[in-house]
Amino acid sequence: MQKTVAVLGGGIGGLSACFHLSKSHQVSKIVLLEGDGRFGGWLSSTRREDGAVFEHGPRGIRPAGAVGRNTLNMVEELGLESEVLPVTYDHVASKNRYLYVGGQLHKMPSGLGGVVRTVPPFSRPLVQSVLKEILISRGKEEDESVHSFVSRRLGTELADIAIDSLCRGVFAGDCRKLSVRSCLPPLYNAEKARGSIILGMLLGPGPGPDVPPSTLTKRAAQENWAQWSLKRGLQNLPEALEERMRNGGRVEVHKDTPVMGLSTNGTGWEVRLLEIWGLGHMYVYCHCTGVVVCVFLSCSLNPVNESTDVCAIDFFLTQIQLEDGTIKADHIIAALPAKALASALLTAAQPLSQQLREIATVTVAVVNLEYEGSVLPVTGFGHLVPSSEDRGLLGVVYDSVPFPQHNRTGEPTTRLTVMLGGAWFQEVFGNPEEVTEQLLLDRATQAVTSHLGVTTPPIWSIVALLKDCIPQYYLGHWKRLENMRQYIRDHNLPLSLAGSSYDGVSVNDVIFSGRTAAEGLVGKV
Ligand SMILES: Cc1cc2nc3c(=O)[nH]c(=O)nc-3n(C[C@H](O)[C@H](O)[C@H](O)COP(=O)(O)OP(=O)(O)OC[C@H]3O[C@@H](n4cnc5c(N)ncnc54)[C@H](O)[C@@H]3O)c2cc1C
Ligand SMILES: C=Cc1c2[nH]c(c1C)Cc1[nH]c(c(CCC(=O)O)c1C)Cc1[nH]c(c(C)c1CCC(=O)O)Cc1[nH]c(c(C)c1C=C)C2
């Protein structure tokens, strides 16, 4: 039985951890600590009075796979089914995605025709690379950059254009630095298990986590959903979770409450019952200093195995320093960005905080634009720009196409989002602390003019600078995770890690990481 669990960070990862913890009676108290004035982290939507909705962070969630089903199950449990806006696979936004190469838009190849014909900007039919791929022998490295992996298996042209763009459109990152093992595990695992990406795709992935279907997941499968959003924007998901936490009465929620420090000892406290001199005494062994301290016990001892002298005790293990005091917890689920957790660890657990600090992040400028009328020359999800074409301009999402329900009511409009910077932010725009909103807005509107031929100015715009918003899983990320988790185990730290810094950046992955952390503590809920 865990007495008090503190969840640090009220982004979607921390909220998910609370949601799952609160279903268990193994925990008597759950405290959620969020530094900002609102919950939800990067899930952030502007809702205008005329009905228009603009997303500053994620805008679409995939229903596929175990993690996709897990999110939809949560949506159903929160009673949000009637709020869902699905986009099916046969919708134009699912079928059409573009690349902006050589100053022109090119539809990404899809369907059989797209694979057997030569489709610009590629110089030969995809089928050639695909057939050759099956014959290429397995790589021997434990990890490899995404670019090197795809060049080796499918050729440099696909790596330079398609994969470079894909990594910008998901991680806002540089495929020459990102790890294939951590960023694209299905491709890495297919090569390891089947010797080929193509065979791996044809034979399918192995069994994933067991997530039972719900009415909503069955509906998503029957109706062939490719992605979904919510009528009031994706921010509605953390809002519904916050409401559930507040009304459920089992979670103490605190916003505007940044965690300043954790006094979880550098290498943890191991509590051993070495000898008892009468009631109320025991020894605590501190790995950090090697000192055995005799303490007076104000808690109840409950020996679990007398022969090994190990006790289960009621004892607060961790102190959390806040701006105006401290709170104590038996266990911590940290759903903070890795660097924020490293800072909170202060001087404690040095090797762990060092590894946490090494998980890099990138900054993205998100510029939402609204135009009068229907201005797009093409229709689809949006277009991506490879780094060889324009390093600072990552891509443009045609938001009105998948989600016209988010347009204002009345006269037709077109909503677009331009994403800038990522791994190239500093190089192109300079210090994020000094860049002006006007510069970013100008750069975004110029791109809409040159890429899409839209010459009229936007009727409305908003610029959001998302500092350090997407973690970058660079080469060796898997090893870093293994080392960190080993350290936590070896030192019995009462700490679990959740959130986008570790096992996937999608909303689904992060929600699943919160669930995994909660269930690691209290068992399956
Ligand atoms: C521009 C953009 C577009 C995206 N698009 C998509 C998409 O289309 N589909 C998709 O699936 N995913 C998308 N993602 C990814 C997804 O949104 C994120 O990976 C996910 O929201 C991260 O959630 P999190 O809870 O791990 O982190 P965060 O949202 O960063 O939450 C961490 C929380 O911790 C708080 N915090 C930080 N320090 C402290 C402290 N010291 N004390 C207390 N609290 C603290 C922060 O305020 C924050 O609320 C996108 C991300 C971005 C940035
Ligand atoms: C141009 C920059 C970005 C765009 N979206 C993101 C960035 C950085 C962030 C992002 N997009 C997706 C995810 C989640 C990944 C997942 O596993 O679900 C994140 C963090 C979804 C996504 N977007 C694109 C792809 C290929 C994916 C993966 C899932 C899917 O296939 O739907 C492509 C894409 N992203 C952007 C554009 C303009 C674009 C393609 C035209 C914007």
UniProtKB/TrEMBL annotation:
UniProt pathway: Porphyrin-containing compound metabolism; protoporphyrin-IX biosynthesis; protoporphyrin-IX from protoporphyrinogen-IX: step 1/1
Domain Amine oxidase: 12-272, 320-519
UniProt entry keywords in alphabetical sequence: FAD, Flavoprotein, Heme biosynthesis, Oxidoreductase, Porphyrin biosynthesis
Catalytic reaction(s) noted: protoporphyrinogen IX + 3 O2 = protoporphyrin IX + 3 H2O2
The EC number(s) this enzyme carries: 1.3.3.4
Compartment list: Mitochondrion inner membrane
Any single Gene Ontology cellular-component annotation: mitochondrial inner membrane
One MF annotation (Gene Ontology) recorded for this entry: oxygen-dependent protoporphyrinogen oxidase activity
Note accompanying the cofactor annotation: Binds 1 FAD per subunit.
Cofactor: FAD
Domain of life: Eukaryota
InterPro entries xrefs: Amino_oxidase, FAD/NAD-bd_sf, Protoporphyrinogen_oxidase, Zeta_carotene_desat/Oxidored
GO biological process assignments: protoporphyrinogen IX biosynthetic process
Function: Catalyzes the 6-electron oxidation of protoporphyrinogen-IX to form protoporphyrin-IX.
Family: Belongs to the protoporphyrinogen/coproporphyrinogen oxidase family. Protoporphyrinogen oxidase subfamily.
PANTHER family the record matches: PROTOPORPHYRINOGEN OXIDASE
Protein name: Protoporphyrinogen oxidase
Biological source species: Oncorhynchus mykiss (Rainbow trout)
